[in-house]
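Format notes (please read before filing issues)

Several people have asked whether sequences and structure tokens are stored in separate files. They are not. Every record keeps both together, in the order shown below: the sequence lines, then the token lines. Line labels are part of the format and must not be stripped during preprocessing.
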Amino acid sequence: MIELRFECQRGCIACCDQDGWVYITEDDLRKAANFLGMTPGAFEKRYVYRTAKRMRLRKPPEKQCPFLNENGCSIHPAKPTQCRLFPFWPELVEKRSGWATAAKFCPGIGKGELIQIGTAVETASEMKSAYPALYPER
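Then the structure lines:
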């Protein structure tokens, strides 16, 4: 059985600096826009790439997210669901190899209190609910 321990490490941005996309929900869009004092429309026009099935933040040159800076997330109180739930994503929690791979770049994995697998799976299910296009039912 995989032992799940995680405690975010102050000042660490390793999870934010991995190659990939930051997907957002409509609620994420509204929260981030409000946090920045923008209308949702203005926020979307400036920061969001939308397709028929999903939305993601536009990726600026040389970094993974427009809100990532040397001090971390500049919209931390309103960060997207995907960011808030890391490392409790289905692909990391449901497979020992996923958790082990994330542990290679995330110094918080393996630290902190033991997390019950049921709690981790429940948190991962929030990811599936928030991003159904990323996690289609099989």
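For reference, the curators noted about this record: The two ends are 24 Å apart (CA to CA). The first strand starts at residue 5 and ends at 6.
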